[in-house]
Structure formats: C-alpha cells, structure tokens
C-alpha cells in the first residue's frame, strides 16, 4: 500500500480521483441527484462562500444537517478551504449544541431547516462566537439575519484547495463518555484516507460500480466512512436518507435504488427482519452489508443471510479510530464474533496491569493503527488516558479464541451502547433524580431476548408515590424531554433500594448480574 502523501487535502484528493466521472451520480437523496462534476464544483464554491463569510483556515464551523446532498458539499467544502467542520448528531437537544458551540468556538453553523429551532435555542444559552447561521433547504422565507445556503452557494466564486498537510486538523466529531461533557475528537486529513485504504476498499470491498446506502448517518464516524469516505474514494454512488432509519424507510431505498452495499446496526437488522412487509431477495440487490455499533448476534446474521442471500460483515470501530479496525470478512466470517484485526491495525487484549492476556481470557482492548485521532480538544487528561503513544485504549472488553476470532465481552466502564450510540448511565440517572417522585436511580444496559442492548432504569420512589405504568411513562417522557431521545430507559424497575458500596457508590455491576438471571 502506498503511503499518504505529506502534502494532502482529502477533498482535493477526492476531486482528483473522480475528475473523469463528472457525469456519474455521486449522491442521490429524496430531492434529486448530485453528479461528481456538480459535487466538485459545489465543494470549490462552498470554500469560496466560507471566504466571503470571513471564515479563515483552521477556524471551526458546526455542521448540523440531515443526510441530504448538501452534507458532503459542506463537509468537503470546509476541508477544501482548510476550515474545520465539526459534524454533530442531529438528535441532540439544545443544551448539548450549546456546549458544542462554546467548546468548538465555531464561527458559523450550517443547519437543515428542521434543526434550526434547536440551534437558535442553543445560541440563546451558549456564550458563542457564531457569526453566521446558514440554512439548507428552508421551506419558506428565512427570518432576517439568516442565510440561505443554495442561493449563496450559486453566487460564490470557486476557489483552489488549501495546501493542507496530511497531519493537519481536518474535522472533529463528538464522542460521549460516562461522565462529563462530550469529547471533541480531532481527526486529520490523512485519517480519512487510511480508513478507505485499510477497511473501505480491502475489507468492505466497495468498488466503482457499487451503490452504497448507509442507514447510519453521516455525522457518525461509521456513517461518514460508509456514506462518504469509502464510496467517493472509488467513484461509487451513494444513496442518502434524511428520515429516521425505520425498516419501512430503509426497505423503500433498498427496493427503489437497489444499493449493492448496505450498512446498518444490529437493532436495525433486527427490526428489518421483524418487519411485516419484508421484501424478497429478488426485490433488492445487496451483495455485502456491514454492521457495527454493538455486537451482531449470530442468529440475526444467519437469518439475514437466509432472507437476502448476502452476508453482514460485523466489525467494531470507534470515533477515536475513525472507523472499523476489527472485522469479519467476506472470505473469513464467523457470525457471533467481531472477526479478526483489519490488516494495518494491531489489537491487544490486556489485563488491569497492562499485560497481554492469554487466549480465552477477557481483556481490555487496545488498538494501534494509522487512523487514530490526534487528541480530544482541550481535554488533556482524557487525551492522556486514551491515546497512549502508538496505542489507543478502546474501553471495550474482548476475548480472543484459539483461531484468532475476537468476541465482544462488554465495556470496561459503565457506558451503554444502544443501537450504536453511547448512553452514559450517570447522565440518565441525573435527569431521573430531578423528577419530584424519584429518590434514587441507577441505569444499566441489558440484552433483550434477541441479544440487543437496551437501557434499563432502577428507581427508588419517594414515599407517597407508587409504582405503576403511569409513573413509568411519565419518567420516560421526562428523560426524553431533556436528553436526546435514544437515551430514555426502555424499562423501569421500581425497587426499595439500590445496591451500594460501603461508601455509598451505586454498584451497577450487581444490577447487571441480576438482569442476567
Ligand atoms: O461503533 C462502532 O463500532 C464504530 C464503527 C465505525 C466507526 C465508528 C464507530 C463508533
């Protein structure tokens, strides 16, 4: 494999490799298509628009947009300009956006109209430096002070790419931890290239004649690779979906656009297989699928392959490593495991003292590979405890068998991964105990009948309140009202007391054990 050149701009790299495909469709969304030629032109114009708005190299912009054809234009246009896009989860409440605006000191926000209200609410809370709010696809006339993306883009001048270095900061994504605020994960231009060269092309096997559809959104590291880095690195076509990834919405795209590569998460695969109006193998054209976010139960993989005749390559990646570093492969697949290290990455399982553990023993997963993030922005402590020289601590526990297959064995911390997204139990508990009926709360993740993790809360009610369906629903709505909706507990158990250490620390591991029996 060639090395990434030292002088490297990932947006320019994509424009160069796709220069001969001007008429080929790069993206298709619910409103139309964007050819490779149009994409290249709009990226260069977007960089011109940033200059016109007075946004300079290395400054940050916030990208809070649904998966529409403008998303890659904004992301790559910023890279082209040497400006740093901070791509954020579109499901977050205003308080989280407010934190991200302050923390990233973003100079402008690029937002889809349905998210504008949340962004404006966040601007009312945050001490921000936002100078421009640019709205993609507004339905009607925008209020004074807001900029419409399309008209400004059309008028903007195309500018040449910034001469960035491979190791220069290209973009950020946010990742949540069990305590504290989300961490700004800082990635370089070269990191995008490494994920395509090491995983996208050789493992997932994305090719020029593919149509790629990722139900995981572009603001996730997983979705960014699937829906931008990999397909554009080989000149493939991408289907984008701005809706929530329900089975109906996903099947609609699978039948209409006939994607050949599909990327999802285990909960989605489970709901697709449980869907009443499931299409037949002849209605779809998938040749390979990917899964990440949480371990794919063996039975789900088997049933999906039986139904659609194609395999799901289950893998694990992280926002810190940018994409998948441990994966099954088409020619080496064992459902129920996460496969083997992706060539180019090394993984090690270590005990509490940092010593490698033998085969068959659970250990903490460490990864070494070229796509590791540069740091967590303005968070020296967490950077130091995660990025350890060449190695990155993942926070996951794994076991490796005699044949070299790795199997997921839980988290090293209390974090819960639900449908591929981290939920901090502490964050949910802190909301629950703000409810007047709640005395104490503990939150854990537990596998349901299909082996998929769901959030469960244990709640001690204040005297005078009694456990019933109504209070359960009220508490669920209370959490949904304050946190991103995926964080609410799917089940609430009302208990008389919580297990605690002598010093009063909640023992979530005891609740997890109880949940298993
Ligand atoms: O959750 C994962 O396994 C994952 C995969 C690819 C990129 C990022 C993440 C978090």
TrEMBL record:
Protein origin, superkingdom: Bacteria
Signal peptide: none
Annotated AMP-dependent synthetase/ligase domain residues: 18-377
Domain AMP-binding enzyme C-terminal: 427-505
Any one GO biological process: secondary metabolite biosynthetic process
Keywords: Ligase
Gene Ontology MF term list: acid-thiol ligase activity; ATP binding; CoA-ligase activity
UniProt keyword Ligase, yes or no: yes
Keyword Ligase belongs to the record: yes
Annotated NCBIfam families: benz_CoA_lig
Official protein name in the record: Benzoate-CoA ligase
UniProt source species: Pusillimonas noertemannii
Upper taxonomic lineage: Bacteria, Pseudomonadati, Pseudomonadota, Betaproteobacteria, Burkholderiales
């Amino acid at each position: 494999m060639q090395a990434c050149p030292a002088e490297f701009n990932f947006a320019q790299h994509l424009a160069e490799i796709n220069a001969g495909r001007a008429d080929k469709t790069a993206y298709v969304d619910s409103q139309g298509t964007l050819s490779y030629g149009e994409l290249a032109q709009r990226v260069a114009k977007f960089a011109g628009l940033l200059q016109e708005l007075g946004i300079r190299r290395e400054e940050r912009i916030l990208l809070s947009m649904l998966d529409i054809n403008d998303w890659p234009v904004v992301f790559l246009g910023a890279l082209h300009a040497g400006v740093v896009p901070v791509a954020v989860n579109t499901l977050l409440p205003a308080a989280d956006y407010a934190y991200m605006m302050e923390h990233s000191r973003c100079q402008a926000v690029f937002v889809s109209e349905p998210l504008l209200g949340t962004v404006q609410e966040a601007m009312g809370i945050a001490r921000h430096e936002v100078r421009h709010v640019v709205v993609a696809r507004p339905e009607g006339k925008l209020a004074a002070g807001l900029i419409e993306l399309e008209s400004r883009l059309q008028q903007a001048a195309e500018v040449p790419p910034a001469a960035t270095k491979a190791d220069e900061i290209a973009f950020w994504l946010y990742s949540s931890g069990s305590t504290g605020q989300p961490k700004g994960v800082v990635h370089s231009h070269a990191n995008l290239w490494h994920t395509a060269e090491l995983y996208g092309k050789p493992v997932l096997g994305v090719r020029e004649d593919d149509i790629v559809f990722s139900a995981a959104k572009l603001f996730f590291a997983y979705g960014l690779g699937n829906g931008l880095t990999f397909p554009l690195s080989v000149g493939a076509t991408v289907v984008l979906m701005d809706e929530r990834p329900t089975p109906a919405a996903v099947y609609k795209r699978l039948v209409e656009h006939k994607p050949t590569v599909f990327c999802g998460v285990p909960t989605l695969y489970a709901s697709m297989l449980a869907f009443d109006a499931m299409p037949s193998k002849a209605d779809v054209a998938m040749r390979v699928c990917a899964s990440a976010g949480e371990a794919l139960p063996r039975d789900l993989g088997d049933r999906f392959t039986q139904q659609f005749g194609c395999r799901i390559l289950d893998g694990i990646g992280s926002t810190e490593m940018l994409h998948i570093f441990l994966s099954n492969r088409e020619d080496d697949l064992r459902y129920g495991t996460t496969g083997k290290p992706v060539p180019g990455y090394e993984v090690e399982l270590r005990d509490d003292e940092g010593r490698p553990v033998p085969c068959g023993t659970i250990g903490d997963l460490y990864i070494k590979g070229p796509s590791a993030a540069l740091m967590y922005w303005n968070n020296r402590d967490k950077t130091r405890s995660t990025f350890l020289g060449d190695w990155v601590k993942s926070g996951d526990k794994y076991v490796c068998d005699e044949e070299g297959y790795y199997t997921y064995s839980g988290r090293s911390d209390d974090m819960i991964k639900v449908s591929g997204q981290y939920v901090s139990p502490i964050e949910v508990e802190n909301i629950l105990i703000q409810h007047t009926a709640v005395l104490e709360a503990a939150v854990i993740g537990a596998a349901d009948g299909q082996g998929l993790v769901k959030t469960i809360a244990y709640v001690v009610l204040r005297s005078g309140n009694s456990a019933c369906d109504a209070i359960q629903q009220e508490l669920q709505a209370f959490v949904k009202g304050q946190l991103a909706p995926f964080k609410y507990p799917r089940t609430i158990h009302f208990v008389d007391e919580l297990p605690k250490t002598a010093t009063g620390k909640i023992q979530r591991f005891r609740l997890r054990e109880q949940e298993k029996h």
